[in-house]
């Protein structure tokens, strides 16, 4: 599972980077709320990482899923359908990445189930994507508190600045366990360069993947 401390922290680019590091990866987006130029997060992941992607439902407005679905008069898929779909993908691929919408406690269906509930049902370890700047230590701690009792894969800084400040560097030193940091301009790369660079951004994750392959 890939979640974030907030919206806009770099979940999608991080998901693409993780998918580039892990062998035989596929990405699932349970709810896509909001599209830019007709594209959703799964399209961005497919372009950058070159891996298969799937969506549960696509909604046009960049809002919380429940509100976005209500606005166009459709029902959200119940969380059990996401569980079943992920299980089917897991039977065909070595790694399934599930990218959330917004933060960990955003509701994914009309019954009030959240990404945290989906993670619990799947028993999946969770990657938390966070910012590098001021406030990130508190936001990250709050998200991890909400994850208590669930397996965590680690933290990723989703948009590491080209010219980090002293605050950025200090926060990076305190964010543990840190899998790595994705450069702020990573989305500008083509597929080949993105996939080649991703292991250097996520060295801890690459080390785990290499160990597992052995």
From TrEMBL:
Chief location of this protein within or outside the cell: cytoplasm
Subcellular localization, as worded in the UniProt entry: Cytoplasm
Gene Ontology cellular component terms for the protein in this record: cytosol
Cited InterPro entries: DTB_synth_BioD (IPR004472), P-loop_NTPase (IPR027417)
Main EC class the enzyme belongs to: ligase
Quaternary structure (record): Homodimer.
A Pfam family that the UniProt record links to this protein: AAA_26
Keywords tagged on the record: ATP-binding, Biotin biosynthesis, Cytoplasm, Ligase, Magnesium, Metal-binding, Nucleotide-binding
Identification of the protein by name: ATP-dependent dethiobiotin synthetase BioD
Record: active site: 29
GO biological process: biotin biosynthetic process
Reported cofactor(s): Mg(2+)
Binding-site list for ATP: 8-13, 41, 99-102, 158-159
A GO term for molecular function: ATP binding
Enzyme Commission code: 6.3.3.3
Similarity field: Belongs to the dethiobiotin synthetase family.
Catalytic activity: (7R,8S)-7,8-diammoniononanoate + CO2 + ATP = (4R,5S)-dethiobiotin + ADP + phosphate + 3 H(+)
Pathway: Cofactor biosynthesis; biotin biosynthesis; biotin from 7,8-diaminononanoate: step 1/2
Binding site for Mg(2+): 12, 41, 99
Gene3D superfamilies assigned: P-loop containing nucleotide triphosphate hydrolases
Keyword Nuclease: no
Function: Catalyzes a mechanistically unusual reaction, the ATP-dependent insertion of CO2 between the N7 and N8 nitrogen atoms of 7,8-diaminopelargonic acid (DAPA, also called 7,8-diammoniononanoate) to form a ureido ring.
Keyword Magnesium annotated: yes
């Amino acid at each position: 599972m890939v979640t974030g401390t907030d919206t806009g922290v770099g979940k999608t680019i991080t998901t693409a980077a993780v998918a580039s590091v892990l062998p035989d990866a596929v990405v699932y987006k349970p709810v896509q709320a909001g599209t830019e130029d007709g594209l959703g997060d799964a399209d961005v992941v497919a372009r950058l990482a070159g891996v298969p992607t799937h969506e549960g439902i696509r909604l046009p407005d960049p809002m919380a899923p429940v509100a976005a679905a209500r606005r166009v008069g459709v029902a959200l898929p119940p969380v059990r359908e996401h569980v079943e779909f992920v299980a089917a993908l897991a039977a065909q691929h070595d790694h399934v990445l599930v990218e959330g919408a917004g933060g960990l406690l955003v509701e994914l269906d009309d019954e009030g189930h959240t990404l945290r509930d989906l993670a619990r049902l799947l028993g999946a370890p969770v990657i938390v994507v966070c910012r590098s700047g001021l406030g990130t230590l508190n936001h990250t701690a709050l998200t991890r508190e909400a994850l208590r009792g669930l397996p965590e894969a680690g933290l990723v800084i989703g948009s590491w600045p080209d010219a980090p400040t002293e605050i950025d560097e200090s926060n990076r030193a305190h964010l543990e366990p840190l899998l790595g940091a994705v450069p702020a301009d990573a989305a500008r790369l083509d597929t080949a360069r993105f996939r080649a660079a991703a292991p250097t951004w996520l060295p801890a994750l690459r080390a785990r993947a290499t160990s597992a392959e052995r």
